[in-house]
Write a structure and sequence with these properties.
Elements: E1 9-10, E2 19-35, H1 38-50, H2 55-78, E3 83-95, E4 98-112
Parallel strand pairs: 1-3
Antiparallel strand pairs: 2-4, 3-4
Protein name: UPF0145 protein STK_10800
InterPro entries: UPF0145_dom_sf, UPF0145_YbjQ-like
Family: Belongs to the UPF0145 family.
């Protein structure tokens, strides 16, 4: 499933304009753990010497966030939700070259307001 193809509403806000929350399903979490491989670390090290954006890490971070978000959406759908509000991201370093990326929010059922 691609986030772009999702039929679930996602927002960082605590409500969705034009919608009424009719049921709160609970907290949903999506987690992924990524390792910065040796090749990426070497390329990033060279790039950091000259300055500027480290594209290898940017791409890895974007992919990890999308994967965590997609997993959160799947959990929300499994609960019967059609929206997730108050979505946030967090990350932690688990080991020297491993990072945990978490997407979390509140799964809810919404209906269009009249």
């Amino acid at each position: 499933m691609s986030f772009r193809e999702s039929d679930i509403l996602i927002t960082t806000a605590q409500e969705l304009p034009g919608y009424k929350i009719v049921e709160v399903k609970g907290v949903v979490i999506g987690i992924t753990v990524r390792s910065r491989g040796l090749g990426g670390n070497i390329a990033a090290s060279f790039r950091s010497l000259i300055g500027g954006e480290i594209k290898e890490y940017v791409e890895m971070a974007e992919q990890a966030r999308m994967q965590a978000l997609e997993r959160m959406i799947e959990r929300a759908k499994a609960l019967g939700a059609n929206a997730v509000i108050s979505v946030r991201f967090d990350s932690n370093e688990l080991a020297q070259n491993m990072d945990e990326i978490i997407a979390y929010g509140t799964a809810v059922v919404v209906t269009k307001s009249i």
